[in-house]
């Protein structure tokens, strides 16, 4: 609410009207892929529903051997309805190709948040938490052999931490999916790399770690 409207309501001695939002999605409900898509497209569980053009569910193979998780859709992604488009998407495609991964056939890509943030601001903790059950269900349905996390907010959602990418990258984490443990590697978001070219060397190292882990991690599912 803007300050002008709030002052007017206070002068009239009427309080602001708060709109009760629906509860966060229930992660215990085993939605099918189609049900999950429909639920996300109509979700109003956080304030981002008010400003979005459309939700961005994710794209790619399903099930997929690799699952990539970014942060929140930017304006290009929101317009196209697909994650990782534009220059960041092209860089991601090149990075994947360099480790022998084909985005069209081997990968499902999505974001921790399914709605864009106003002016591409950082997601709030509550927004990440409200959207987390959707991501959790996507992981359970995609059943990837490895999760590559791109950026800190995706790491916060999947690992339940507020640590930085710098402190999380370089090691293999474990994500506890419904079907069992999945190795998880954290690296920088491609959009960050476009602004910080020297960090590309670190990301290259992370991708090679992801590739080695994918090739050697025991397949139990
Ligand atoms: S960001 Fe997630 S929780 Fe918030 S409205 Fe969009 S889909 Fe719902």
Concise synopsis of the structure shown:
By secondary structure, the protein is an alpha/beta fold. The protein has helices at 3-11, 33-41, 75-80, 86-98, 103-106, 125-142, 152-159, 165-168, 190-195, 200-216; strands at residues 59-60, 66-70, 107-111, 146-150, 172-177, 180-187. α6 (125-142) packs across α7 (152-159).
Structure description:
It is a single chain. This protein has 221 residues and is an alpha/beta fold. It has one domain: Uracil-DNA Glycosylase, subunit E, CATH 3.40.470. Helices cover 43% and strands 14% of the residues. It is built from 10 helices and 6 strands, in the order H-H-E-E-H-H-H-E-H-E-H-H-E-E-H-H. Strand 5 and strand 6 form a beta hairpin. 40% of the residues are buried. The model is unreliable at 8-18 (pLDDT under 50). The structure holds iron/sulfur cluster. Iron/sulfur cluster binds next to helix 6.
């Amino acid at each position: 609410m803007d300050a002008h409207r709030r002052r007017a309501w206070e002068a009239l001695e009427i309080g602001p009207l708060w709109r009760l939002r629906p509860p966060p999605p229930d992660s215990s409900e085993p939605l099918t892929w189609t049900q999950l898509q429909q639920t996300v497209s109509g979700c109003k569980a956080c304030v981002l529903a008010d400003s979005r053009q459309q939700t961005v569910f994710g794209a790619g193979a399903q099930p997929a051997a690799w699952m990539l998780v970014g942060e929140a859709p930017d304006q290009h992604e929101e317009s196209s309805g697909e994650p990782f488009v534009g220059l960041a998407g092209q860089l991601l495609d090149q990075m994947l190709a360099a480790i022998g991964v084909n985005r069209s056939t081997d990968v499902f890509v999505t974001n921790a948040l399914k709605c864009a943030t106003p002016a591409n601001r950082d997601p709030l903790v509550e927004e990440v938490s409200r959207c987390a059950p959707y991501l959790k269900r996507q992981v359970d349905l995609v059943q990837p052999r490895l999760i590559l996390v791109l950026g800190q907010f995706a790491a916060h959602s999947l690992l339940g931490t507020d640590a930085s990418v710098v402190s999380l990258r370089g090691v293999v984490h474990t994500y506890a999916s419904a079907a069992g443990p999945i190795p998880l590697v954290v690296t920088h978001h491609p959009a960050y790399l476009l602004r910080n070219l020297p960090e590309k060397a670190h990301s290259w190292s992370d991708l090679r770690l992801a590739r080695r882990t994918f090739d050697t991690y025991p397949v139990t599912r």
